Write a sequence for this structure.
């Protein structure tokens, strides 16, 4: 049995990450932030490509290592 709200379309495993990202961008705009920053890894290639399609740009100044594991920063400047 599904408990989904009939007024909201179903989120697939492919649309959910983009919906979350879009929500965060909208919220940042409403709060008049200048940018949205996120971090990801090489293992998340599908997400990496999605972020770039959404306008995020790799920002090496945001990169860091966590227990010798490289983590890559992305930035979306809001206007």
């Amino acid at each position: 049995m599904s408990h989904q709200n009939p007024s909201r379309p179903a989120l697939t495993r492919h649309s959910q990450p983009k919906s979350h990202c879009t929500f965060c961008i909208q919220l940042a705009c409403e709060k008049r932030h200048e940018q949205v920053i996120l971090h990801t890894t090489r293992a998340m290639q599908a997400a990496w490509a999605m972020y770039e399609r959404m306008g995020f740009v790799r920002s090496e100044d945001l990169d860091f290592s966590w227990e010798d594991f490289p983590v890559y920063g992305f930035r979306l400047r809001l206007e």
Q: What stands out?
A: Confidence is low (pLDDT under 50) at residues 1-6.
